[in-house]
Amino acid sequence: MVPSGNTRDLFVLENGLAVGYEQIPSINSFNIGIFFRIGSFHEPEEINGITHVIEHMLFKRTRHYTNRELVYKIEGLGGDYDAFTGYDGVTVTLRILNRYWKEAIGLLYEIIREALFLEEDFLAEKKVILEEIEMYRETPQDYIMEMFTSFLWEGSPLGRPILGTEKSLEGLTARRARDYFRSFFTAANATLSVAGQVDTGELKEALKIFESLPSGKKAAELSRAPEQYGLNYQRNSTLRQAHLVLYFPAVDHFDKRRYAFFVLNALLGAADFSLFNQELRESRGLAYNLYSDLIFFPGNGVFYFYAGFNPARLEEVEEGLREIFSLLKKDGISLELLTIAKNYVLSKLVFSLDIIYNIMEKNGTFLRRYGEFPDFDRTRTLIEDVSMEDIRILLRDFIFSGKCGLVYYGKNKKKDVEETWKKLQSEFSVI
Hints:
By secondary structure, the protein is of the alpha+beta class. Helix content is 45%, strand content 19%. The protein has 16 helices and eleven strands. The strands form two sheets. It has a six-stranded mixed β-sheet with strand order 1-2-6-3-5-4, with helices on both faces. A five-stranded mixed β-sheet has the order 7-11-8-10-9, sandwiched between helices. It is globular, with a radius of gyration of 23 Å.
C-alpha cells in the first residue's frame, strides 16, 4: 500500500549507496535520514560503546560548524534533527521546511562527511556519555532493561550495553573513533531514506554529493545469540518500587509469524484493553506502569512483560500473573478480543502514515533491514489474517514452551522472589 498520490523510487548512487524516496504531494516538510547497518553488535568487546560515541561526535563539530552553529543552522531553517544508536545500526535524521530541502541535504552531508573528531571535543563528549550511563543506572525502569538483556544474551554482543561501560570508554580516543567511523560507516553499510514533494530528478542530482562516501565492504549480518532463561535477581533496598520483567522466546524479525506476535502483544500487554492492563492495573490496582513488548533481531526474538509495583504487593502481582496465564491455558481469548487486537495493531500502522517523518523513518528502517520498501497492503493482510488458531500456536510454542525467565530489581528478599519465580514457572509448563 502506497498512500493515494504518493510515488516511490528506489535507486543507487554510483558508490553503491541505496536511496529510497517516497514522493508525497502537497506537504510542507522535507524529511531525510541516513540509516547505517553498523551498530553496537558489530563492536569488538574492548571498544564497546564506540558506535554510540561516534553518533554523538557527528554533531559535536564539523569542518564548517561548531555544535552551536550547526544547531542554530538547522533550527533556524525551521528544522529539527535526531540520531540514535541500536544494536543493528545508527540512524541520523533531519526534518526541515520544504523550501529548504537542498540545505537539509547539505547539512546531513556536513554531519556525515565533515565531522572532525577532535580530541578535545571527544574528551568532553565522553564525560557527557558517562553522565548518560549514570542517568540510566539511576533510573530503575532503564536499569532493569539492561539487567534483562545482559542476562538473556550473556556473552553475546546483544548482551552488552549500547552506551558502553566506564572501562570500555576509558581506552577510547578520538583517533580510534574517527578510524572506526571511516572504516565501517560506508555506502555499502548505509541507506538514505527521503520523504517530500521534491521532483525526483532534482533530488537525484542533489544527492550526488553523497557519492563521495566511500563504497567500503558490507558489515557482517547479525547472527543468532545464545539465550539464557531463569531468574536474575538484584536487590536494592533504597528503591520504593520493585521492578519485574517476565520474558519468553519469540520469533526473529524475518519470521512471518511476527505479525501474529504483534496481535498477541496487543492482547497481552501493549494496549489498555490488554489482559495484563485490565487484570493487574484496572481490576487489582497493582501497578501504574506496566506493558508488554517484543524485541526482534535476525535469529533472535523475545516477548517480555514489565511492571513496577509496591514491593509489599509482590505476592499479589504473582497471583494476578498466574490468573492471566491460567486463563490463557483455558482459551481465555475470545474472538471479539482478537478482533479488537487486530484493529488496534492496524490502527497503529495506519496512523503512523499520517506523519511524514514516520514514513521516512519506517521506509529507512525497512530498507536497512529487508532491502525493500514496506508493503503496507501486504502487512495489513497478514495482520487481518491472524486467526485464533495462530494465537493458540504461539501460546503453545512460545509462552507455554517451558522456556521463560524472570528479572527482578528491588528491595524484596531473594527467597521471596525465588518463591514467586517457582510459582510462576508452574504456570508455564509445556501444554
